Amino acid sequence: MKIHMILQGKGGCGKSYISSLIAQYILSKDKPLDCVDTDPVNSTFAGYKALNVRTLHLLDDDQINTRNLDTLIEWIVSADTDMVIDNGAATFVPLAHYIITNGIADLLAEMGHELIIHTVIAGGQALVDTINGFAQLAKQLPDDISFVVWLNEFYGKIIYQNKTFEEMKAYKEVKNRISSILTLPQVKEETYGLDIEEMLKLRKTFDEAINDPSLSIMTRQRLKIYRTNMFNQLDLAAVI
Q1: Residue 151 and residue 183 in contact, taking contact as beta carbons nearer than 8 Å
Q2: Is 128 exposed, middle or buried (0-12, 13-18, 19+ CB in 10 A)?
Q3: How far apart are CA 6 and CA 119, in angstroms?
């Protein structure tokens, strides 16, 4: 089983959206799936009712609940499906520490599960913070854990000091551990951008929005084109 865990220390960079994309893609392949939202602050992923997301809050009174972390691993080990786990920014550091100190990747491998870490590099104001968050993850997590990097261009291109992501030091130092790079492309704000924002606001999947007769024909057409683009990227990345 493949365990897709989304980790990034910056809030509002698109983690829950990416979690929903991965989940929708896996389900489109008629594969059984278990989804978990561990964000104690904004349980956005759990808002997608069509994905049947379970919640497991990892913080109690601003303190990490180690027993709930243990519960998460029990859920993973006992599952007979792939999993998508969306983690909040507030628990980014303690969850990464838990994975390291408890040898979680090795444990899951022994149980026949593969841990895949998905992380986000976001354009705009979040760019520097998300680059640093990725570099921190890559430095801390064991070398045998691979990454899928998502370049979220929704709020701007991934360019820092005139360098693309592949030209940055953060990439070059760990490029052998990056299995795939996917891009959430920058889109026209007044068409695709507005369509996607409205869909996300309602916590609808692409299927739900595309089949919603209350939406205009062109809105549904654009969402269908965008979904095809993203699913084609995931096909090439061979993440499942």
Answers
A1: yes
A2: exposed
A3: 6
Q: Which of 22, 18, 43 is nearest to 34 (CA)?
A: 22
Residue tagged 């698109």 (tokens): 14
Contact 121, 151 (CB under 8 A): yes
Residue 147, CA distances (Å) to 4, 7, 12, 115, 176 in order: 10, 10, 20, 9, 10
Contact, 77 vs 59, CB < 8 A?
Answer: no
- Structure confidence at residue 143 (pLDDT): 84
What backbone phi and psi angles, to 5 degrees, belong to 84? -125, 125
Say if residues 2 and 237 touch (Cβ distance below 8 Å): no
> Do you know the residue count of the chain?
240
- Residue 97 CA to residue 87 CA, distance in Å, equals 13
Q: How many whole angstroms from its chain centre is CA 135?
A: 16
**Shortest CA distance to 149 belongs to which of 171, 124, 126?**
171
What phi-psi label fits residue 124: left (phi over 0), alpha (psi between -120 and 50 degrees) or beta? Answer: left
Neighbours of 51 (CB within 10 A): 20
65-123 per-position pLDDT tens digit: 888 899 999 999 888 899 999 998 888 888 888 888 999 989 999 998 999 999 999 99
Alpha helices, DSSP H only, in 10-103?
15-28, 66-78, 92-101
Q: How many angstroms separate the CA atoms of 137 and 80, rounded?
A: 28
Mind listing the pLDDT tens digit for each residue in 147-184?
A: 999 999 998 999 999 999 999 999 999 999 999 999 99
